[in-house]
Specification:
InterPro entries: G_TR_CS, GTP-eEF1A_C, P-loop_NTPase, T_Tr_GTP-bd_dom, TRAFAC_GTPase_members, Transl_B-barrel_sf, Transl_elong_EF1A/Init_IF2_C. This is Tr-type G domain-containing protein. Keywords: GTP-binding, Nucleotide-binding. Belongs to the TRAFAC class translation factor GTPase superfamily. Classic translation factor GTPase family. EF-Tu/EF-1A subfamily. This protein has a 3-stranded parallel beta sheet with strand order 3-4-5. Strands 10-11-19 form a 3-stranded mixed beta sheet. The longest helix is centred in the middle third of the chain and has 17 residues. A hairpin with a 3-residue loop joins strand 8 and strand 9. The protein contains 7 helices and 19 strands.
C-alpha cells in the first residue's frame, strides 16, 4: 500500500524485502527480443547498501542504462558529491561497460509536468559528469521517460512534443531515435574472444534438488560445452559440466558473453602519474589524494581470480570501497600468480578424462 509508483518494479523485484522496502536489493534477470537483438536485462540495485550486488550485475553488461529521476530533489540527491548516480556511472565505466544510455525517468513528476527546462538541466549536469569519468557524451543517448505512463518507452510520447529525439555520433556508425527501445536497438554488440581459454566468473552457486550444484555466471572468453572438464579457482576443484542452460533453455554450447568483492591492502605505492598524459609525476609517493592516479602493488587478503587487463579485460578491473563509498578504481596491469598444488578432481571429471 502507498507504493503505487513502484507497481511495475515488482516484475523484477522478487524478494519479499524488496517489495516491502520498495528498493532493489539483489540482481535479477529478464529477457526479451526486439527487431535486432536477443536482450537480457540485468536489474541491479542502486542503493549504496547493496553496491556489491550492483557491481556483480553491472560487470556482466554490454551496455548500462543509467536511470536518473527527474523529480524535485531526487536528481539533486543522486548527482551530489556522494550521490549514487555518480557512483553507479563511475563503477559502470570502471567495470568495462563502455556503452551508456541515460533514461531520465519520472518526467510526469517535474514542475510543471514534462518540463523541457528540467530535462535540459538534468542532461547538462549528467553529461558534464560522465565526461569527467571518460564517457563521451556524444555517444550517449539521453531519453526523457515516464515508465508509469509509458512515455517514450516503446512509442513517442504526446506529452513531450518538444523532444525531437536523441542522436549519437560514434566511429562505428551514427544513430538516432526517440524512444528507450530504439536506444537499446542501437547498442553495438562487443566482440568476445572464443579462441582463448575458458574464463567464467561466477555470479552465484545454487543447490537444486534432483539436479545438484548449478554455478551461474557469464562466459567471458572461450566456449563452455556439456561434457567439458573444468577447474574452479581459487579452490582448485576439477569437475565435469553435465549441462548448460540459459533462461531455462538447454544449450549445446555457451559463447562469450563476470565480479567479486575482496579485502585487499596496498603493499606499495610505486609511482604517481598524470591521468591524462600517463607521464610519471613522482616515484614512491607516501600517500594519494582524492583524484590522484598511481601505479600500486596490491596484495589480496585471500586468493582471488584476476587477470591483467591487456589479456582479459573483463577480469582486469577492480574497485575499492571503504565506509560504504567507492574510494578507488582501476585496471590491473600485471598479476603475480602463485603455483597451486593438485586440487580435487571429482569422479565425473575422472570418468570424462578417461573416456577421452
Amino acid at each position: 500500500m502507498g507504493k503505487g509508483s513502484l507497481k511495475y518494479a515488482s516484475v523484477l523485484d522478487k524478494l519479499k524485502a524488496e517489495r516491502e522496502r520498495g528498493i532493489t536489493i539483489d540482481i535479477s534477470l529478464w529477457k526479451f527480443e526486439n527487431s535486432k537483438y536477443y536482450v537480457t536485462i540485468i536489474d541491479a540495485p542502486g542503493h549504496r547498501d547493496f553496491i556489491k550486488n550492483m557491481i556483480r550485475g553491472t560487470s556482466q553488461a554490454d551496455c548500462a542504462v543509467l536511470i536518473v529521476a527527474a523529480g524535485v530533489g531526487e536528481f539533486e540527491a543522486g548527482i551530489s558529491k556522494n550521490g549514487q548516480t555518480r557512483e553507479c556511472a563511475l563503477l559502470a565505466y570502471t567495470l568495462g561497460v563502455k556503452q551508456l544510455i541515460v533514461a531520465v525517468k519520472k518526467m510526469d513528476f517535474t514542475e510543471p509536468p514534462y518540463s523541457q527546462k528540467r530535462y535540459k538541466e538534468i542532461v547538462q549536469e549528467v553529461s558534464t559528469y560522465i565526461k569527467k569519468i571518460s564517457y563521451n557524451p556524444d555517444t550517449v543517448a539521453c531519453v526523457p521517460i515516464s515508465g508509469w505512463n509509458d512515455d517514450n518507452m516503446l512509442e513517442p510520447s504526446a506529452n513531450m512534443p518538444w523532444f525531437k529525439g536523441w542522436k549519437v555520433t560514434r566511429k562505428d556508425g551514427n544513430a538516432s531515435g526517440t524512444t528507450l527501445l530504439e536506444a537499446l536497438d542501437c547498442i553495438l554488440p562487443p566482440t568476445h574472444p572464443i579462441d582463448k581459454p575458458l574464463h567464467l566468473p561466477l555470479q552465484d552457486i545454487y543447490k537444486i534438488g534432483g539436479i545438484g550444484t548449478v554455478p551461474v555466471g557469464r562466459v567471458e572468453t572461450g566456449v563452455l560445452k556439456p561434457g567439458m572438464v573444468v577447474t574452479f579457482a581459487p579452490v582448485n576443484v576439477t569437475t565435469e559440466v553435465k549441462s548448460v542452460e540459459m533462461h531455462h533453455e538447454a544449450l549445446s554450447e555457451a559463447l562469450p558473453g563476470d565480479n567479486v568483492g575482496f579485502n585487499v591492502k596496498f603493499a606499495e605505492l610505486k609511482e604517481k602519474i598524470d591521468c591524462r598524459s600517463r607521464k610519471k609525476l613522482e616515484d614512491g609517493p607516501k600517500f594519494l589524494r582524492s583524484g590522484d592516479t598511481a601505479i600500486v602493488d596490491m596484495v589480496p587478503g585471500k586468493p582471488m581470480c584476476v587477470e591483467s587487463f591487456s589479456d582479459y579485460p573483463p577480469l582486469g578491473h577492480f574497485a575499492v570501497r571503504d565506509m560504504r563509498q567507492t574510494v578507488a578504481v582501476g585496471v590491473i596491469k600485471a598479476v603475480d600468480k602463485e603455483a597451486t598444488g593438485a586440487g580435487k578432481v571429482t569422479k565425473s571429471a575422472q570418468k570424462a578424462q578417461k573416456a577421452k
